[in-house]
Amino acid sequence: MTLPPNVYDAEPIPASAREEIDRLLQSGDLFRYTAAENAPVTLLEAEFAAMLGSKYALAVSSCSAALFLSLKALDLPRDARVLLPGFTFAAVPSSVVHADLVPVLCEVGDNYRIDLVDFEARLDDNISAVIISHMRGHTSDMDAIMALCEARDIPVIEDAAHSLGTTWHGRNIGTIGKIGCFSFQSYKLINAGEGGIMVSDDANLIARAVIMSGAYEHNWKKHKAPEGDNTGELEAAFARWQNLLPLYNLRLSNLSAAIIRPQLAEVPRRVRDGRANHDYVADKLNASPWLQVPEKLAPEARAPDSIQFNLEGLDNTQILAFQDAANARGVKVQVFGQSTDNARAFWNWQFVPEKQELPKTRAMLMFACDVRLPARLKTEELDLIAGALTAAAEDVMGAAKAYGT
Predict the structure, then answer these.
(1) Nearest to residue 207, comparing CAs of 167, 260, 161, 245?
(2) Is the pTM higher than 0.90?
(3) Domains in the chain, CATH or no CATH each
């Protein structure tokens, strides 16, 4: 039997990165503020902001760091309440707790997107900020969310860790809210092992974040406004906050930037191939009576590197049997709510000070499945993955019913 591919291997780092990496290793010039100007991290920030269509970008040590700095940059009072979806990664509520704020969770539906009725109700629970996690790249209704938040003057941070390259009405995800945060961790579209970046058009917010990220003394002078912007707004914001903010030292190194920068040119190709792979496998899974891939929302053009699907008509024992059968066939399936200590199951976030029960989200997590599906996979590999998943369902539920006999 031919085994499915290893979906955890990343694509090779482009060869064009090697010359710059070698230069950095020879010079030992790894700290972003050593050079007088145009350090690799500085260039990455300018290039990433231009790619997204944002004024400013700040590269940091992780997406979690970007979320944390975004919250600190908003200058919220201690114990302010931050609304976020109940389906996200544990790092998101963790960033809220690290910022001395209180996470408030809202319900998420069977399509992995925010339940807008519950979201609106909780917005009026003394909420000071919102984090929208586009979890696994699934975009919630940003038109409705922004309208609700803007009507209440509540700032929105986009956790776009899984959504680089995704658009909403043609606009890049991460540029719709006040701040957008992205990840360069190895399982994301751009791989630096670790790393993150935040984008914003707000000079005051980005200046605060830059200083707190570790731009001590006057290193903030090495952060520049976009070319052609002569307003002096960013420089004035830096001067305003000099010596007034704590330093958290969450900087990105030049070596990481040298690995990331050549991958920016690969983003369109990875988005194209990842979308095609996802849709190809989704069609095959949806042909099974027990596997269902939720439809995307109409304004969304996704950039997926994984696929999520729901198990339909299976009881809990059968769900666990399906997970085991798929794993035995060489395809690692994670049923979010059935995997012990899963960091995406809200009931495992014991550090959250206000415990909440989200019955709709809990029910969804008990049958929602997750499988990695990187853009580098070829058609024959996709066939093996889809075949293993549909066959695993038949192992548990019986082949006859699958064909309507």
Answers:
(1) 245
(2) yes
(3) 16-265 (3.40.640.10), 267-402 (3.90.1150.10)
